[in-house]
């Protein structure tokens, strides 16, 4: 993942606001490839997941598949600027749910429908494109089935991204 300055600030604020919790649980970073910064720069103990090998990546996954030994083990999943590349949002959401422990937190940053910036991914062997844009209402509706939405809004930075914070509902389980 490329962590541009506004995403870095949002992740740092999330960490500051939830530090006691985040320091007491395992944290997964979906889309962890360090292109121009990574979540690990802020939350050093997070485990990096990506579909390619590289700096910041601890576990290489195939799209749509979370290894059994990682299912249900993470108290938080951070996904910064990776959702924009996902050709199948339902599959991506399932991967996040698969990683989360009961009542785990999701912190997601994604492009708003106003975002005109193009993001890059290094290898891009799957040919995923930077094309997925979403309205704030659609983002909230998409995640509210499985997550209690704690916060959702537009970043107050130069980059046109949305931030969503949700807690996995009791009725949802990994697998």
Structure commentary:
The protein is built from four helices and seven strands. It has helices at 5-17, 19-22, 89-99, 136-144, and strands at residues 27-30, 47-50, 59-60, 74-80, 100-111, 147-154, 161-168. The protein is globular, with a radius of gyration of 14 Å. The protein has one domain: Vaccinia Virus protein VP39 (Rossmann fold), CATH 3.40.50.150. By secondary structure, it is of the alpha/beta class. Strands 3-2-1-4-5-7-6 form a seven-stranded mixed β-sheet, sandwiched between helices.
Question: What's the topology here?
Answer:
Blueprint: H1 5-17, H2 19-22, E1 27-30, E2 47-50, E3 59-60, E4 74-80, H3 89-99, E5 100-111, H4 136-144, E6 147-154, E7 161-168
Parallel strand pairs: 1-2, 1-4, 2-3, 4-5
Antiparallel strand pairs: 5-7, 6-7
Termini gap? 25 Å
Number of helices: 4
Unreliable spans are 119-130
Could you please say which CATH topology applies here? Rossmann fold
Number of strands: 7
Mean pLDDT: 83
Strand content: 25-35%
Overall shape: it is globular
Please, how many domains? 1
User: Structural class of the secondary elements?
Assistant: alpha/beta
Largest sheet: 7 strands, mixed
CATH A-level architecture: 3-Layer(aba) Sandwich
Fraction of helical residues: 10-25%
Per CATH, the class reads Alpha Beta
